[in-house]
# Entry
Amino acid sequence: MSNLEQKAAVLYNEKKYPEALDIYLSLYQKSPKTEKYSIFCGSCFDAMGESDQAISYYKKATRLNPVSETSLIALSNIYYNKADYENAFKFAYRLLRKNPNNASALLCLGNIAYCKADYENALHYYELVYKNNNSSYIAVINMANTYYDLARYVKAVDFAKKALKIYPSSVDAYIILGNSYIELEKHEKAEKSLLRALEFRDDNPWIYNALSRLYQKTEKWESALETGWNAVICTNNTHQDQHINFGYLLYECVDEKGKELAERYAKKWLNRYPDEKIVSYMATAILDNESLKSADTDYVKQIFDAFAGDFDSTLSGLEYQVPEHIGKCVKDNYKKPFYKYIKYLDLGCGTGLCGKTVKSIIGWSHVTGVDLSEKMLLQAKRKYVYDRLVMDEIVNFLNTEDKKYHLITAGDVFTYFGDLQKVINLIAKVLTDGGQVIFTISSNYINSDDYHLTPSGRFIHNSDYVLKLLKKNGLKKNSIERKPLRNEGDRVIYGFVIVAEKFITIEK
Ligand SMILES: C[S@@+](CC[C@H](N)C(=O)[O-])C[C@H]1O[C@@H](n2cnc3c(N)ncnc32)[C@H](O)[C@@H]1O
# Structure
């Protein structure tokens, strides 16, 4: 090793990456055909967070040596961290063809499958690593975690225990153990595991979350709220997920235990985080549900961004029926004029569940979807249903839209609006004469108000109020049916599916 190389290696080990990079770049320029200099430059760029530059140098190294193990695994990992799973797979697989037992490549392939929620495949790759080396902590803990996601809780316990034998202070293993015991209804063991995890890390919100879930399940509401609160406050930079979890916990507490305890924590929450949009909306929904006329747009965006990845599977678990109801209304009501190319607008399209059902019925059409949540739109894009996807607030979008639509749907969207006057007025504006709007509302079973904000942060509506608004805005009711929309806990949530048509205006 030359003196310069030695100096660069020392700088790299001291984490002085820019200084080390200067030397490696000069060595690379003098000797561009030496594989190791490309790799060193790639490592420095990678350590400095400049992933595109790192990729370019690692690729140079693979051109010099197509089976360069270091470069292939580094490329796979960088692409994986960028969520570019196609490229991550390509490089890990190349490495695997050279060495079918390469643990880094197998783990990377397992992680890629896991991120795509392909848990069986993830397990297959982790198992291959485990079979070659049963003391690989990463393989064992990943297997425990994947078994948990597959709802194979006995196996998850088994592998979490194996992980603890290899690494006795593994907080992750204790959390998986605790969560699995909760599912297996071994509540004492669950509590013991989670309290043990706290001994190692009392600032890990996920431990408090799991404890809170345990106490909620065993109806120890005071403890559930206190541990839920700890999950929120134990990190300085509170993750939005923790706020969302806590908001839902308070709402479930109102539902199952009563308002007083939930209100006490809602006040504390609001006092501590007065500037957090999620907190002010969710806490206000619990403390004072009279003053809000619509859901806060930041709140809607953040909760749906957080749920987007699991939205379709979660809603299928809740027996979500809105897309089928809307689809049936389209079949029964929508008279497609002969040869007409339908312009269809899906408001609050989410991941595209309604759009997909409707498109399969109307056929030849141009489909526009509008939603606030970028991540929901990303899921919608993957369904290849929409010709145009717009990230915008619905009222804002309708206000500025100059196109007209033959058909508009809004499935389970108006539950984020209280006052519907503006949105219905604008829908009427963008419908063609004779065009139809099909939408759902959740029924207000609590009082006779036009709309009412529930502690869940969702609005419920009085159907007479909605029908009056439709009429006032030139929309004739075609049908209204009371239907189950989805489940919430043990309850079935009922609502109305409404079809209305724009009066044909006759020019004089
Ligand atoms: C419960 S999801 C329903 C999604 C879809 N319609 C379906 O039936 O699967 C409600 C969607 O409405 C969107 N949304 C709620 N209020 C909105 C607003 N004011 N502007 C745009 N999108 C909104 C949310 O982001 C979310 O994706």
